[in-house]
Structures are given as structure tokens and as C-alpha cells.
Amino acid sequence: MTATTVEIKNLTKIFTDTNTTAINDLSLNIEKGKITGLIGADGTGKTTLIRLIIGLLVTDKGEIETLGLDPFTQKYKLNQKIGYMPQKFGLYEDLSVIENLNLYADLKNVPRDFDELLEFTDLARFKDRLAGRLSGGMKQKLGLACALMGFPEFLVLDEPSVGVDPISRRELMKLVRNSMNENTTVLWSTAYLDEAHSFDTAVVMDAGKVIFNGIPNELGNTSQEFENNVIELMGGYKKKESLIAEHFEMNDYDTEYPVEALDLAKKYGDFYAVRNNTFHIKKGEIFGLLGPNGAGKSTSFKMMCGLATPTKGTAKIMETDIKENPSKARSYLGYMAQKFSLYGNLTVRQNLEFFAGIYGVSILSRKERVDEVIDVFSLKQYENQLSFELPLGFKQRLSMACALIHNPPILFLDEPTSGVDVLTRRDFWNHITSLAKKGVTILVTTHFMDEAEYCDRISLFYKGEAIAIGTPEELKQKANVDNMEETFIKLIEERDENDD
Amino acid sequence: MFRRVLALIKKEFLAIWKDPRSRAIIIAPPLIQLLLFANALTMEIKNIDMVVLDRSNTVESRELISRFENSRWFRNIIYANNEIDIRTHINEQNVQIGLEINNDFAGQIKQNKPVSVQVIVDGRQTNSAAIAGGYASQIISQYSNEIDKRPQGASIRAEVRNWFNPNLEYQWFLLGTLVSLLAVITALMLTALSIAREREMGTFDQLIVSPLSSGEILIGKTIPPLIIAVIMTSIMTVLAMLFFNMPFAGSVFWFFVTIIIALLSIVGIGLFISSLCKTQQQAILGVFVFQSPAILLSGFISPIEDMPLLVQKITYLNPIRFFMTITKGILFKGMLPQDIIMNLIPMIIMACVALTAAGWMFKRKLD
Amino acid sequence: MMIKKPSPQKLSNIRIIRALITKEFLQIVRDPSSILIAFVIPFIYLVIYMYGINLDTVKVTMGIKNDDPAPETLTLIKSFDQSDYITPYVYNDKDLMYHDLIRSRIKGAIIIPNDFSSKLLKSRPADILIITDGSETNLANYAQSYPVSIANQWLSESRYKYLVKPPLINTELRYWFNQDINSHYFIMPGSLAITMTLIGILLTALVVAREWERGTMEALLSTRVKRIHIVLSKYIPYFILGMMSMVFSVFMCIVVYNIPFQGNLLILFTVGGLFLLSCMGIGLTISTLLRDQFLASQVALAVGFLPALMLSGLIFPINSMPEGFQIFTRFLPPRYFVSFIQSEFMAGTIWKIVLESSLFLAILGWLLFVIVYKKTAVRLED
After folding, report:
1. Measured between beta carbons, which residues in chain C are less than 8 angstroms from residue A91?
2. What's the ipTM?
3. Is the CB of A93 inside 8 Å of chain C's CB atoms?
4. Per-residue pLDDT tens digits for A433-452
5. Domain identity same for C258 and C346
6. C361 and C254 within one domain
7. Which of A236, A490, B328, C112 could hold A479 in an S-S bridge, CB 3.0 to 4.6 Å?
8. At CA C24, angle to CA C366 and CA A50, rounded to 5?
9. How many C-beta atoms surround the C-beta of residue A482 within 10 A?
């Protein structure tokens, strides 16, 4: 009989202000001594469940027992046995590494003995650096260190690996395993399906319910299999012809390379965020920018859109230098911003009309065009709803619709699938690949390694430079492995070795 | 390019209207302030409480005191028994003013000999004290003239005419200045939020990546707050005229020209501040740091002529100063176009400078 | 001998509070906005109030048209010229003078009629006509009264002096507490009160909301931190910062601007401290209830600053307000502090005022502390 750390029976949680049922009659047991992964897209209820388990939220219906205590009435006692790392890591950005550690040590009433911890997390040399100035990966390690203090029985981590490259993710997992003893239980939530195999137990959530709970290998031995089976559990994905691509009006043009980066470089003070960046994207090609945080891919992307001015080099759209003739160059672009920045207080229709207007869709044809887009993107049911109220998947769709409303020959996508569930992601890439087939040229940045496979060519960024450019196949061969994640890790490690 | 800007303007209006915060900014402060000022706030002195030490205790002294009791400026009269009483009441601010009548008061008067009374004012409220003292002097000299049976002598009096505001209605003065101020504050707040909010929401990138040039973005962000502020000012002016009988002696045309130019310069400053700030909260603080000195040094509370020369020169940089001068001029005096234009020119210059700086700044801040 | 070991919980309480306070201080020092609010804004205000606002007797520019042929009248005009209160411009053309009045070149006009001196010679009252620019209501008041007093002063020294009859009842006006009749002596301490209100409220209004927005509050709530720890750790550092700001402002007033101070510094800072606590209470209440920084700052400005400026009695006299408003101001901390601080500076320590203010501020401060404590959450929702 295995001991349970958390017992949940028929839990329901409804948020009255947005009228959403975040957790829907959920029952779950979390085993002691194991690392349990809570996997699901944004909005599936992971964070809500975590907060309920440790008593930061109150249940509407059902029961929870954590470490034998009731999180609602015995929260204070429970606090003394858990280590919690919230989203955004719970770090004080204005305080240094050591000051953050001191603070948490005092708050948890444990001795200020950090040498081992600092060694362990490789933060020793950054002791006095302000937490706000750390890189993403280091912040996460620090957050973990603060949560680990006092060696809690139950370690609860809410998306500790978000936005970080696979190498850092692996390091983080190693850290966690090394800090456990046989009585420690770890609950780790993530949106990345491909992390499933690093857990002892995988709990997959969708729409406030658990759709799978067991050993990851039961659902598939590789991440691809796992993902496919999760999709089945979610109702399956039927690949359809992309209506969006069908209705897309492609105006033909002559240019061979619609998007070009020529020796781009960006300097901040003495520091080169990007240097020697050159690539040429062919018509109808899907080109991906990959790399860990801080490697320079976002900066490179920004220079291509005109959001950042290059210190050196040129960004060319349709052979027009974006610096010299910005209006003309930008009229060829469709842009999907990170986190789908839309005007939350405006309705779906108003957002579309706005983007149609500023991208030059004539007033006469505007209404027609917006109607068409609403149909094609299946946004009819939300037409007059405020965009901040939309579910995440529809926000993404609206964002895509706004980007495509003027039928641009070039699409720039900035992390277009962050946080969405696996079905939506598949659907999205279906549309993208169909558009590319029709001739749309696409530049995309992403954290998801498996999405790299959808690209025709990839540029791998590390420390400000593109260390490899080629098709996914070419790169995999170069690294001598069979999946993108390993390729990534291998190529970066090689680069590090060469630098040393 | 025209339709691009139109689309942006339409979006701005929608965004302002639909965001409950901006709605609150437009509606609440002006209403509250109008209410407060029109009803509660005045620099007139009324309801003065007084302590009296009447050592004379005669018909004449009591008659004098009754003049105070019946006066519309004075409220409570407290009777003291001795010097210490007077001192205590004034110290403790139970009264603002004290009157001391000596015991030879009636005697001297009956003999037609001059006599003095002491009026003590609490200097802690120096301004009100001076005015209260003035009222007291007036009442005393009026009484003096009435009971003076001696033949007349030479003296100088004044016949006073107050042009433009015959009864020196404080309310008119306040309302006139208020109308300009409220518009300014609203315009500042609205524009301060506008760019900073888009930055926070992440939609600012969308604007930059679009074909809109920074000039077009500037126009798109200037016009909606400008129109809203102009409408507000007009409504408030009409309300003030209807409910408080505030006069409007000048030209409607020039009034509108003035409002538009003044608000344009304010909007420019607001946008400039907004372009410097990364978060809405910083923008609010920034606006506040600009707004309070600007209002205090605009001639609203105390006249510019009385500020030290250096400070007077600084007020030339303050568009609110000119706005107020013209507003008061048009409302009360029917100001002439050439004078209006002289005051408009500095604001036009400031508008151009501020708007240019804003446009330049937010392009720069991208990096 | 029994040595009592402190219980682990008590020890950890001190440790926790100290850790939280250290954290707040580090954040204050490294965040420019707190320094801006605590020192830069007061400094700007002090400078502006000192140099920009002047409620004293002001010098009025007036035009003079003399229709009286008598030569003696010219000495009257000379009196106007020599006076500290009027800057006269002599006009020969009445229409030009009116024109300039309309265009605000002069703020008032004096017309000496042609029978002026003849009336005086006959021992009769003589009138001068004064026209003021009523749109500048404040100035108009002065424009009305100065010329008369200057003229009567002149009269008592002129060749008509023997024809003058002194008033039967003469008013001796005495100013207590401000013999120099310098309006800065009461504006500066008052402005100090206003500034402190602003700081007390603004500093704390953002503080709690900021933790919620940055996600650090959530992390704190899963440690051994208790409500009282959180509340104290918000009050103490900002109280210290606020007091430092107060000391700085008082220093500026007394030492740099030479505003006379008749009272007792200890009492000043004690009541000041109570006032600061009340204002912080208001700010923290706003911050705790609204977990949104933007909203918190808006409400703080609306609720804190505006009433302080308008309804505290500093600029607009409370006695002139309608009865309802007068009563309302009895609930506003700035009203008590403005009256206290003006008193303490100009009159020295008046115990009734000290006690009244202290009592009110202490009660309000305590009430708000309790509200903040009760409303401080231990979980994301309650």
C-alpha cells in the first residue's frame, strides 16, 4: 500500500466573477515519495488545483486532504511542511540572490546555511546579483532554492520550467531529484507535454478534469506517441482542409527571397545581443528561430519586424529595407504578437475592424472582409464579445485573424502557441503549413522543440549567434540523434565545448 | 494613410469609452470638483466667531456688540470675563477674532472724545485674519459715524465700481478658473494612460509593426483625448452659465480656438510623459508631478505678478497660465482678438514642441 | 538558577518581522519611485509654496486720472507712488485708462473728481472713484481698500490736516502670532501638512498592491508568515521613511526658509508621527482592498490628496463652508494636522489643540490599523 500525500475527492471550484468552472468534480490521489507531473495547457486548471491543495484557495465542493491536514482550517500548520514555488517564481527582483535566500530562510525559520544550496544550484558566483538581473534559467533555480529551504516534505512547483530551454529544464529536474529523500513528494506542473517522461507519475488535465493519471510510458514511449494519445483522450483531432488557407488570396510576386537578414547585429552598450545574423527565407518557406532565453532569437525577430533598430546590418522585406521605407515594408507583414496582444476591451469585431483599417483594407470592402474572416476563422459565436473574455484558443485564433486580415504575403509569428492545448496547436500548424503551401512566407519563433519539425528550415541561436541553420533533418543528422530536443542539447553542448 | 489614422482614432475612442477606468476619469473628478467648488469652497470669509471683553458694559458698548451679532459675516459671540479668557479662546482657536472694549468707552463717547477699541486677530490664519479684521474695522467705523454728533470734517471715501463682476462674486472667479483647470487635468490623465497602457498590454508593439508611421500614431492618439476634453469644457461652461449665472462676455469662436490650442499643448505634454513611462502607474505619478506645480503656478491661487521674478519667468513655460488668462478674459471681459492671439502663441509653440518630443520619444524607447 | 530559553515561536516571530522589514528597506532603497515620493515631491512642493504662493498684501497696479486742478492733489498722487501697495500710472486720457483696465494692463483705476479738494476745504467728505477689475476678485478687494487708506493717511499729513476729524471710535488692530504679517509663516507649515498627507498615502497605497501584482505575496503566504507580520512589515519601514521625509521638510522650513518656530520639536514630531500613521493607514487600506496598483494610486490621489488640499482649511477657510461640509472636515486627518502645525509653529504649544489633534489622529490611526489587519489576506481569497 503506497502512502498518499494528497487525497482529493470530488473537487469543484467555480470562479464567480468570470463564471468559469475551473475544477470540475475532480478526484485524484498524489503518491508519497514520487515526482508527479501535472500536465495541461493554460486554463485547464493546474494552478487552481495547486492553490487549492496548499490552501491558497477555498473549495466550493468536495474534499482535500494534504499531508493529513485540511488546507482550509489548518493552513498555517501545513505551511510549515511545504515548499512552494509559484508562477513568476516568488522572487523579489530588487533583492540579490543571497538576500532572497536570507529572506526565505528567516521566513521558514531555518538556519542561514546556504553553501551547499549555492553549490548545488550553481548560483554561488551570482550571490550578489539582483534577482531581476538573472537570466530566466537562473531565476528558476533561485526560485527552486527558496522553495527547497528547510527540506519540506511536499515540494509544490507551479510551472517551474516555463519558457526555458530543454537543457535548463533537465538541470532543474536533476536538482529536484537530488534534493529528494524517500519521504519527499514533488508536484510539478507544466504546459509542455514533452516533459511527461521525466516524471514518475503523469496527471494530464483538460477543462478542469483529469484525463489521464498513471506512469507516462503507459500512454506512449516517446513524446510523439504520448502526445498523440493525449489528443485521442481529448476527443481526437480530425485533420481538415484549412478553410483559412483556402480563402487566402495570394497575390503573386517576383521576389525570390521575400525576407532577408543581412549581417544583423544589435548592441546594448558593450553587450552584443545578436551578431553576424544572416539568413534568406524563400517564398513559401516556414523558417523557425529556436534557442534558449537570452540567446538572441527574440532580438533578431524584433529587428526583422522593425521593433528594434539594428546596430549594424539590414533587414529586408520584399527587398525593401525596413529602416528606409518602414510603411511600405510593413504593409507586407502580418504579425502575431506574443501572448496574443489584443485590445481586451474591444469586441472581436472591433479588433478586426481596427486591424483591417490600419493595414489598409479599404473602407468599402472592410465590412465584407471582416464578415468573411469571422466566418472562415469560426469566430461567429464570439463576434460581439470582449476579447479579454475569450478562451485562450480563440484568442489565438483572433490574433491570427487580425494578422491575416489584409492577406499579407509574409507572416511573422512570435511564440504563437504559448500556453494553448495540444489540439489547438495541431490545428494551428495545420493552418500554417497550408498557408505556406499556398505561398505565404513564414518566420516563427518558438520554445517547443517538436514544433521545429513543422519548419522547413531552422536557425538555432545560442549566445547571440546562429550556431546552426538547416532543415530539421540536416540538424538531426549533424547531432546524430533522432529528435529535436536532443539535437538542440547536443549542438549547444558542442558549442560550449568548442568555446572552452 | 488617412484611413489608417481614422481607424486608429476610432479604436482610441472605443478603448477610452470601454475601459471603466478612463470612463471614471472623465466623469467623476470634474463632477466632484464642480460640486465641491460651487458649493463649499470659497475664499470669502464668513461665519467668523468672536470673543468679546466688554469692560464698559454700557448701552453704547452693547450696541456696538450687537452690530457684530447682526452682521452677516460674524457668527458666534463669546463673552469673556478677563484678559486670560480672551487669550485662551484665541489660542485654542475657538474664535478667530477678539474685541476688547475699555471701561472708559461710553464716557469718552458722550464727551465727543475719540476712544480706541482693540481688535485682536489670530495670525495663524493670516489671510483670513486680515480680512476679518477688515470687516471688524468696517463695522466699528460705521457705528462710529452713526453716533458721531460732532460736526463733519474732511475725510476721503471711495465710490467703488467693480467692472465685469459687480458683486465680486467669488463663485464666478472660481468657476472661470475651474473650467480651464478641470479640462486640463482630464486631458492630462487620459493621454498619460494612453501610451503607457498599450505598452503594458503589449499592443503597442502591434502599432509599431503596422504600417502606421510614428506621426500617424501621434495624431491618432492626440485627437480623441482632445475632442473629449473640448466637449467636457464646453459642457461645463454651459452648466456653469446655466446654474451659476456665470457670464460669457466674449467671442464663442475665439473661446473654442483657445480651448483647442490649449488642450493641444496639454495633450502633447501628457503624451510626452506617457512615452517616457513603461507602466501606467509611472505615468500617473509623472502626470501628477507635472500637474500640481503647473496648477499652483498658474495664477489660480495667487497672482503671478507677485511671484519672484525668476518664478514669473518660469510660468512662461506653463501653458495653463495662458489658458487661464484667456479664459477669464473671454468669460468676463470680452477680450479682444489681438490680446487673445498674444496669449495663444506661447501655447502653440509648446504644443508643437511637446508633440514632436512625444513622437520622437516613443520611437526611441522601443530599443 | 533557571535560564529561560525563548520559545521557538517567539524567536521566529522576531526573525520573520526583521526579515520582512529588511526586505522592504532594500526595496525602498533600490526603487526610485519611493525616493521620488518621499523626498523629491516634498522638495518641489516646498519650493513652489515658498516662492510661488503669496497671499500677503500684494502690490496692485492702478491707473490714476486726476481731474482736480488744485496743486495739493499732486502730493496725493505722490503718496500713491511712494506707497508699497500701489504701483500707479498717471493717465491724461480717461478712455485710454479704461482701455488698459480692460486689457489687464492695470488692475484698477482711481479717478479724482474735480471737486475733490474743494470739498475737503469745506470740511466735508470727498469721494474718489475707484474702478476695479472684478474678474480678478482677490486683487479687486485690495484695489478697493488700499487707495482709501493711503488717501486718508495722506489727508492727515496734508494741508487739510487740521480739517480732519479723527474717528470717534478708532480700531487698533493687533495681530497675534504673526506680527510680521508674513503669509509664508502660515503657508509653509500648512503645506508641510499637505505634503505629508500625500506622501503617507501614496507611499503605502502602492506597496501591497505591488506584491500581489508581482506574485510575491503568494509565495509569502505559504511560509510561516502571519497576518500581523505582514501588516507590521508594511507600517514600520514606510513610517521611518515618512518621518525622515518630515524631518527633511521641517528642516527646510525652519533652517533654510527661516520660518519662525515657537513650539516644541518633540511635540511636533510626536503629533506628526500620529498623523503619518493615520495617512499610512488610509494608504494601506486602499492598497489592501484593491489589489490593483493602478486603481490604488487613482483612489489614493482622489481620496487622499484632493480633500487634503481643498478641505483642510489651508487655502479655503473651513468656517466659510456650508454647515454640512464643516462637519465633514472633522473627519479628515489633514484638517487637524494643518491647524495643529500652524499653531505649533506660530503660537507655540497650545495644549487643547495638541490633545484634540492627538486624540483624533490616534483613534483614526488605530481604527485603520485594525481594518488593515482584518483585511490582510492569508489566502488568495477569503
Report:
1. 216
2. 0.79
3. yes
4. 999 999 999 999 987 777 88
5. yes
6. yes
7. A490
8. 95
9. 10
